[in-house]
Amino acid sequence: MYFIELDDSNRKIELSTSVKYTSCSHFLDFPEVNFDSDCTPIHHTVKLMASAGLLREELNCLDIESKLNGKYHYDKSSDEFIIAKLTISEFPSEWKELMEESWSMWLEALDGDHVSVGNRADEIEENELYDDPFLFGSLFYIKRVDVHPLFRGNRTGTSLIKYTFRYLIKDTDGMIFLIAKPMQSLLSAAEEKFSSSTKLANYYKSCGFKRVAKLDSKSILMEAKLNNFR
Q1: Could you list the residue range(s) of the whole structural domain that residue 59 is in?
Q2: What letter does residue 82 receive in the DSSP assignment?
Q3: pLDDT tens-digit profile of 144-162?
Q4: Closest by CA position to 85, among listed 29, 156, 32, 167
């Protein structure tokens, strides 16, 4: 359960929450698709949110945003309060085969974190680890697990990861990667004091991720088989 507090009251108000899931990709040509090393991934966004409209109705308050005084993340375009958000890149193995590229060659066009993930995926394939998880599956990279600071402490991030790969993403096989490193929340303007990447890695280990390698002093690469979440 999730609660908010109004500035003019000590009363805690329980939020009615829901999950919103969107995915998209981008191709320049239709109906013919040219698979090459510049092929973009599928982008998945998963948000745990609460309707501002329901809050207004429950509290009989039209100006609910001002009463919350910026403490919570309000998305004006969707009229929602965002509790947590996942952003995920998906790279289907079928597309990789059509491009005739390695994982690292495909992912290097994005950023350094994606390159690290691509190198590890190549290693998994070359050494036949995890019983060939890419044969009928995709490579998933969780780019960001963002939980609003006021809603932390009840394993919201790991619960949202489990929910996403159990109910929303339909692949039966594949690998999921993430990089455990402290990141400032995009859902809050408050300055944060970060814990160590080791503590963060232990947090993700609790939901099934395995520590692979320390990329630098603040980043730890982690992985899990997708069917661990089934």
Answers
A1: 3-229
A2: E
A3: 999 999 998 889 999 999 9
A4: 156
